[in-house]
Amino acid sequence: MPFIEQDNVYKSAVWMNWGAAVGQTNPDPAKTINIGVIWPTWDSVNPSGNTWLRQTRIPIYQCPSDPTLNHGLDWQPGDASYAGNFLVFGGMQNVTTKPSGSNYETVWDGQANIPATFTDGQSNSILFAHKYARCEARGTGGTWWMRGVFHGLSASSGEPSTGGQQDSFPGDRLSAVFGGGRSRDEIILTGPASKFQVQPALPLNSAANGGKCDRRLASTPHAVMQAALADGSVRVISANITPATWYAALTPGGGEVLGSDW
Predict the structure, then answer these.
(1) Which residues have CB under 8 Å from 168's CB, separation 6+?
(2) List of residues 6+ apart from 59 with CB closer than 8 A
(3) What 3-state class would DSSP assign to 41?
(4) 3-state secondary structure of 93
(5) How far apart are CA 208 and CA 198, in angstroms?
(6) How buried is 111 (Cβ within 10 angstroms: 0-12 exposed, 13-18 middle, 19+ buried)?
(7) Which residues fall within 8 angstroms of residue 34, CB to CB, at 6 or more apart?
């Protein structure tokens, strides 16, 4: 957050006093209250506007052309139009691993490192791409910038209880991620099947009502996909790129040779 001119949002997440009224924060760690459980970051309060941190609008995370912005659920306006490539941030080794009580802090952390984990080349590896804020063709889903952070497990879920509330595993159907990953309620498409959607029809409609937006995929409101690469550049990707080439650009260390359509 400090790197995108959101330092106040960052401080709100770090120094939240559990016992403070909405809109109040306590920057003194000696005066915060130890409630004996893992502090749910998304339940921190943003003092600007007296609302939950998870509902804070981050302008740089929103594309003005995204037709699904401001159509989220209770977290508005914390929706987003971009997502991260799981194969980079979660890691290819975790692409099908289901989060559980023993691995929830590591299964979605691939420990990406520039340049060490980008053996295919930084200019050939996608970090971020467009993804609609909401997609309804496979049920309620979409992209919220703060979704997928660890909140806590409950004993009723069959996992060891940490005393927190069971709200989300990393990488669920509302997380800002594409290209792979798994949670209790969703398997995000990987391999060639992960190719992005271009202007999917009726993204706010269910499949039964003509909706085509698949929450498991990157999706763009433009005629082409725009993606940020690991070398810091932004690339315009044709809708005609083959699924194989797209997937090869998602794998930072797969050893593939990108096709001529890259």
Answers:
(1) 147, 148, 149, 150, 151, 174
(2) none
(3) helix
(4) helix
(5) 20
(6) exposed
(7) none
Structure tokens given for 60: 């740089």
How far from 7 is each of 26, 94, 227, CA to CA, in Å? 15, 31, 25
Place of tokens 């939950």: 52
How far, in Å, CA of 110 to CA of 180, rounded? 12
Tens digits of per-residue pLDDT, 71-115? Answer: 877 678 889 999 999 999 988 888 888 776 667 667 777 889 999
Distances (CA, A) of 18 to 8, 167, 172: 18, 18, 26
pLDDT, tens digit, for every residue of 165-183?
Answer: 444 455 677 888 899 988 6
Distance of CA 97 to the CA centre of its chain: 17
Angle at 256 between CA 253 and CA 259, to 5 degrees: 135
- The residue to which tokens 């992960």 are assigned: 194
**CA distances (Å), origin 226, targets 35, 63, 123, 141, 237:** 44, 11, 14, 21, 6
| R_g (Cα) of the chain, nearest Å | 19
Token pair recorded at residue 71: 């159509």
